[in-house]
Amino acid sequence: MKKLPNNIPTKDELQKMFRMMVTIRETENTLLASNKAGNTPGQVHLSNGQEAICVGISSHLTDEDQITSNHRGHGHFLAKGGNLKAMFSEIYGMADGVCGGMGGSMHVADLSKGIVGANGIVGGGISIATGVAFAKKLDGSNHIVVTYFGDGASNQGVLMECLNITALWKLPLLFVCENNGYSEFSPTKTVTKGDISMRAKPFGIPIWQINGNEIIEVWQTGQEAIEHIRSGGGPAFIEAKTWRQSGHFSRENLVLQKPYRTEEEEKEGLADDPIIHLTPKIDGAELIMKEVKDEVERASKAALMGTPPASNAAKKLMFSDTYKGYY
Amino acid sequence: MVQMRFIQAINKALFEEMARDDKVILIGEDVEASIFGDTRGLIERFGPNRVRNTPISEATLTGMTVGAAASGYRIVLHMMFSNFIYTGFDAIANQMAKLPLMTGGQISLPITVIASYGGGRSTAAQHSDTPYPVLMNLGGLNIAVPSTPADACGLLKSAIRSNDPTFFLEPGGRGGEMGEVPDEDITVPFGVASLPIKGKDVTLVTMGSCTKIVLETAQQLISKDVNPEVIDLRTLVPLDKKTILSSVKKTGKIVIIDEARDTCSAASHISAIVVDEGFQYLKAPIRRVTVPDTPMPYAPNSEKYLIPSVERIYKAVMTLNKSY
User: Fold this and answer.
1) pLDDT tens, B67-88?
2) pLDDT tens-digit profile of A20-64?
3) CA of B101: which chain A residue's CA is closest?
4) What is the C-alpha separation between B235 and B160, in angstroms, rounded?
């Protein structure tokens, strides 16, 4: 396991990251409220409490760098530069959503920002990211790819396959395991043996195991891991420990017979909040929070004013070539 | 025109497409050793960056094609036997077939998956499936099933040039069969069936591995003064409905020959279309000659019993009209 680096972000960088973390939190709180009000056709999977990880990593990425995300991907999308209003529109099922209302909450993608897509299949993004990293390598560029997945996805066999291939071919891929302690509704320790990051060890991939709720630690580690990849060193693996403040999905209480977490755990988990940890270090935090709240509210309201896609939109989007002019 | 084997025609298409476009890359298990011979010589010509031997990790390889295709490459994945498609099925069904839609058309996926399919060589149940029905049902994949070297070459070129994901399924064990292939750079369009034999008495719809025996059956029928029209579909998605329906309009009778298991086979889908859109033309029930809903056995006689044969096709045709 790698030692923690000691470089630190500037005050400006820290403030920027704070703003983004608050934006993600505020956005997801708004989505939950919209969901309860019946304004999201489907469910939403919130990443409250995990914001520091994607924000810390993304601050080292450009538009040419790419990410694959997962079902808990709103934060990944926003931190990578995805448009807030276009994401709201997508989740509200509108035509001007970032995917035309065809993907929804679990599938926000914006290729122009290097967001290759979020994924409803647990672990589904890892092999896609490996393919993108293969393309980057063939291009001869020094752009990199980040794949975000959870502790649950770590039990998919495809992770082992991708660790092997990326290490063997020295592909520019950063594996980021956001270990939030839960594999959907099961505590991960009840379905998982050993340390997840150690799964990368036999492949000779450098590993960092960090506190994902401390943005500075994520930022520092991200910088070092990404430097390793950009300099042609091949893949790297970060396991960021965090805690999922929300349930697996927005309104799970309606289908669950009993809680799967104790009140004590909830209390401790909510207190270990990356935004609470960072706030004392930020000048004018309150003002930033207010500005963000207004911005998010405006975006959500504007998105709700949109129009849904044409009922026959889906068919037109398939087979770009084969049926040109067919419909 | 030049005479060449089926496998050489595939090899020719790969060579020509890779030479034509630097963005065409080939990955797969043992593409270097090339046990079928269809990828032979490519690594020597194009190097390991464009022809990449991979680990045996189908679940990852199918996902990688999506990532590489979304990043500007025209990627060809050789999966050897089509049963291995099942091992890689998550990324096929959940990613490849769906992401163009789910991203709102932001990405197109120029992916070609090559695999050998079908039985008849005692490769047993895990190496002899005909998997196109499950692929047809996904709604986002083109499926090419060539039956001649010329079509193999032309359809593979079309697949590689297409911006949509395509499965190119070569009939297993037919690699040695000879046929004429044009010297020129000729593509075979998707969704256009060929009519190797024209006739007026009965329509025989065939695809891929079945075409050879259908043509043999047709000769027997002709010798009995029954004139079949043979339609070789060439692609199952898109499907040339127009040619099928206009033939049925002429003949009033149709037999569909398909090496897939019967339930939800290509044959049953075509039957449904003919009933829906051509019921008024039918003078007799539709017949399907398919594989019963059972895995392929190993013993040659048991395997042969299940696969469509000249005898079964002939019998099916003869039950349609006592006046033959």
Assistant:
1) 999 999 999 999 999 999 999 9
2) 999 999 999 999 999 999 999 999 999 999 999 999 999 999 999
3) A317
4) 14
Q: Under an 8 A CB cutoff, do A100 and B104 touch?
A: yes
Q: Which of A99, A135, A161 sits opposite B106 (nearest CB)?
A: A99
A-chain CB neighbours of B66 within 8 Å are 127-128, 131
Task: State how far residue B193 is from chain A, nearest Cα, in angstroms.
Answer: 15
Looking at the structure, give the CATH architecture of the domain made up of residues A11-306: 3-Layer(aba) Sandwich (3.40)
- Of residues B5, B127, B174, B261, which has the active-site annotation? B127
Q: Within 10 Å of residue B320's Cβ, how many Cβ atoms?
A: 21
| Strand-strand pairing, A182-183 and B2-5 | unpaired
Q: What is the pLDDT of residues B242-295, one digit of tens each?
A: 999 999 999 999 999 999 999 999 999 999 999 999 999 999 999 999 999 999
B78 given a catalytic annotation: no
Best residue in B71, B74, B136, B162 to probe A by mutation, most A CBs within 10 Å? B71
Nearest to A182 by CA among A133, A249, A82, A238: A249
Task: Indicate if the pLDDT at residue A326 is higher than 60.
Answer: no
| Strand residue runs (E) in chain A | 66-68, 115-117, 145-150, 173-179, 182-183, 186-187, 207-211, 236-241
Q: Is A102 on the interface with B (CB under 8 A)?
A: yes
Q: Which residue of A has its CA nearest to B87?
A: A158
Q: Is A111 on the interface with B (CB under 8 A)?
A: yes
Taking an 8 Å cut-off on Cβ atoms, the answer to whether A99 and B102 are in contact is: yes
Mean pLDDT on B187-212: 97
Q: Where are the domains of chain A?
A: 11-306
pLDDT at A327: 37
**HSE (CB half, 13 Å, CA atoms) of B225?**
2
Q: What is the pLDDT of residues A160-198, one digit of tens each?
A: 999 999 999 999 999 999 999 999 999 999 999 999 999
In chain B the domains, ranked by start, together with CATH numbers, are 2-181 (3.40.50.970), 194-318 (3.40.50.920)
Total length of chain A: 327
Burial group, residue B17, by CB count within 10 angstroms (0-12, 13-18, 19+)? buried
